[in-house]
Structure formats: C-alpha cells, structure tokens
Amino acid sequence: MTTAPITAAPPSVAGQVITLHGETELIARAGHLFEAKTEFICAAVDTSIWSMSITRDHALRRLATHRAAGVAVYKLYNPAAVAEPADLAHLARVAEFGAQVRICPSKLPHEAIIIDGRVAILAGPTVAGERDFSVVSVPGVVEGVRSLFMTTWQAATDLAEYLPASRPQVDEQGLTILRLLSAGQKDETAARQLGFSVRTYRRRVAELMDALGASSRFQAGVRARELGLRI
Amino acid sequence: MTTAPITAAPPSVAGQVITLHGETELIARAGHLFEAKTEFICAAVDTSIWSMSITRDHALRRLATHRAAGVAVYKLYNPAAVAEPADLAHLARVAEFGAQVRICPSKLPHEAIIIDGRVAILAGPTVAGERDFSVVSVPGVVEGVRSLFMTTWQAATDLAEYLPASRPQVDEQGLTILRLLSAGQKDETAARQLGFSVRTYRRRVAELMDALGASSRFQAGVRARELGLRI
DNA sequence: ACCCGGATGGCAACAAGCTGCCAGCCCCGC
DNA sequence: GCGGGGCTGGCAGCTTGTTGCCATCCGGGT
C-alpha cells in the first residue's frame, strides 16, 4: 500500500511526521509539545480522552493555568459528549475555566490537537486498546489541518446552547407533539392519534409554547427548529 | 520559529511531507497523484480553483471518467460558491456528472484534496498570486485530515438545497412578513406596521405558506427556519 | 375508608386565522 | 377615452386555536 512516488528530489522538507504508538508513548516523547503558548485546539471524541491519566480536577487546573497565561483554548466535542448529565456538567466547568467549548453537529471519528498553530497531533483509530498518533509540524500541513478544524468549529454549536438553564426542557411526549405540529396536523387529528382529548392536547401545546417562550404557533415552530429539537 | 524537538530518535517515518510552490509545480510534480482509484475528496474555496488551467467542460469530462471508473467524488464548497447563478449552475452540472457536492455552513479558508485516503494535498494562503501546497502521505496524518474533512462534510448542506427548483422564492417583503410572524406578532398588528390591510397581509401569508409547502403556521415556522431564510 | 390534589375531558366564550366574494381603484394597452 | 385585468380592502362565514370553568376520576397519604 504505497503511494506513487513524487517525481524528482523533494525541493524542501520542513519537518518530519512522527508516528507514536499509544498515549503513554505520546506523552513521554511529545508531552512537552502540549505546553501551548498562544493557542490550544482540541477536537475530542469524548470528555475522557486526553485526560485518562489525569483527573478532571487536574485538567481544570491546567485550564486555569492556560487562562492565566493568555492561551486561547478551543475544545470541540462530539454530540455524545453532552448526552450524560455528568459529562455536560464537566464541560460546563471546562467553559467556566476559560475554554471555548463547542459541540459538533456530526460525529468526529478521530481526535486531533493543534498547538500554537505549529504542531498537529492526529489520533488514529483504537486498535487493541491503543491508538497511534501522528505528530506533524510541517507548517503547510498544520495550517491545512487547522483550517479544516476551524471550518468545523464555525459550524459547531456553543456549549451554552446545551445547558439546561438556556434550553427548554421538552420531554418525549412534548417532542412527539412538536413532530405532529411540524407535520402540519390539526389539533383534533393529533389528539386522536396520541389517544387523549383535544383539550388535553391543547393544554400540552400551551405548555410547550410557554417552554419555548413563543406567543404564536409560527414563532413556536421557528423556536423549536432553532433549538435543534429532534422534531 | 521552530517547534521544540521530539525527544530521542523517531521510531518510524512513514513517508515525507513535500512542499511545492505554485499550482504549476504542483501539477508538474504531483499531478499524477490526482488520479484517484476509489475516492476523490476536494474542499474548495470556489469553483475556479483546481481547474484554472483547464476548462469547466474538461473538468466535467474528468468527472464522467471518475464516475465510469467507480470513483466516489466529494466536493465541498464555501457558501460564496453558490452566490452567483453561473457558479450555481456549474455546480449543478458537477453534481449531475456524478460528484457529491455540498456547501459548507462556514467559510473554508484553505483548500484541501484527499485522494484514495492515501495522500492529502493542503493548500496554503495565496502570496504574490501563488500558493504553497503541502503533499503528505503519512497514513495517520492523511486519515486525521480526512476525519476532519468528513466531520465538516457531515455538517454541510447538500447542493440540492440551493437549487431554485427545490427552494421557495421569497422576496424581501415576504422575508419581512416572516420576521414579523417569527416575532410572534398578530396579523392585525403586523398589517398595520407594514401599511396595508389585514386582508392583504393574510393574502401574503397564504402565499408564503404555499411557497413553504406548509399547511399550518407552526409547520411554516419550522420550514422557514430549516431553509435558513434570513428571518 | 376517607380526603385531597392533580389530571383529564367536555363545554363554552372568545380570539385568531382562512378564504371566498364583491366593489372600487389604478394602470396599461388599444 | 375606454375597457380590461390585476390588486387592494371590507365584509362575512367558517375553521382552528386559546383558555377558563367545572365535573369526574384516580392515586396516594393518613
């Protein structure tokens, strides 16, 4: 499995790509690279990776150190990272400690770290409990990787949108009602479909309107979609 | 401006990173790499880059060749790529010729190409009319770059959503009405604000409902937001 | 066993929205 | 100058939605 060779001698090689096996080797051999001076970017699959050998409190303290040193920290997570209340609470604290946290609209299969725009560490898939890490410092490659990351970052949703205080609590039945409304169904039809009276259905819709902070059904529809509710 | 060195000797170097200067050199030295066998991925700033030395017809013929050969082609463009009708028309043809085309929700600053998951070509910024290209074939790096690309791809919008046939035409007045509806305003109030009668306002709302394909106002609100109308 | 609170459902008054009909106005073409 | 078409606005009948009120039921606690 080799790529066709580049013709003639390479004009320049501005750094090497190092492949390291396992997180222990990564930290031992390239751990010092994690000391960011200006910017620390991390695209993570979940909240435990990259901190599995240190406690969450330690991670938070490092964040505080970064903030004190003026290092901009960007952390991008998979949607699964906010599925559990404990993980969501942790991410809220990560944000409180100065990191910018966003949740990716789609699944990020592999992780990446970019430090000071100078080095990128790209994780491979997990094989036999370990992953290979590619450490690259070629400016063009690092910038290309950072460019793709920033594109994803722009499209991601700020963590604040996931915090309970800013987001209406809609239970499963509420989502079902929103789906029926979104499908254009009349109250009588939808109520029959759900197996309760139109009065109760209308009571529920009124509750949803309150939760969404809407004063008309059109506004409620816009709000429901804006909040990315699963309708 | 150098990165702190990796401690000890590198355990493995699975390929080099080659930096090429300018598109002419890129094509001359690494042009053969563009011959994809299974997959061709391209994240482009606009429709002209990567084809500035060949005509659009030539590009379309190459796409047909790719399709005939069973090569999956993914093309991701900036939002600006669909701003002009001529560009949009060209992209429609690109899609007709077999490429999957999506539009990124945010601005992609630099371009990237990934061929067969084996080599990545990352473009740098334009300086004095030329760009440097980093050609990398280290599996870990290529996979990491592809991973980030696919995350952005998942979040992008299919080109079909931008084609006029599938997208309701809403004029400026229509958008204003949608904004008032989105603000929760009653018909009488909104009509007065716009300076015409409530009958006319309701006539307009009915037309918008038709355009959005909605049978209720809630549904219309959801659709308006889904289409990303500026409301 | 009893009581109370919460939820449901039916009814009704009212509000908001939907749409047809028709008169009047304006503009354009002949 | 006239006629016709398109648009607007008023009115009205109807539909859909909003919300209050009250009777009934059910479950939980004492």
Can you walk me through this structure?
The structure is a homodimer of 231-residue chains. With 231 residues, chain A is α+β, with helices and mostly antiparallel strands. Chain A is 41% helix and 19% strand. An eight-stranded mixed beta sheet of chain A has the order 1-7-6-5-2-3-4-8, with helices on both faces. In chain A, strand 5 (112-115) and strand 6 (119-127) form a beta hairpin. In chain A, helix 6 (187-194) packs across helix 7. The radius of gyration of chain A is 23 Å and the shape is elongated. Mean pLDDT of chain A is 83; it is low at 1-14. The interface between A and B is large, with 81 and 81 residues. Chain A binds a DNA duplex (30 and 30 nucleotides) through residues 186-188, 196-200, 202-203, 205-206, 216-217.
Topology readout:
2 copies of one chain form a homodimer.
Chain A: E1 17-21, H1 23-30, E2 39-44, H2 56-68, E3 72-77, H3 85-96, E4 100-103, E5 112-115, E6 119-127, E7 130-136, H4 139-155, E8 157-158, H5 172-182, H6 187-194, H7 198-212, H8 217-226
Parallel strand pairs in A: 2-3, 3-4
Antiparallel strand pairs in A: 1-7, 2-5, 4-8, 5-6, 6-7
Chain A binds a DNA duplex (30 and 30 nucleotides) through residues 186-188, 196-200, 202-203, 205-206, 216-217.
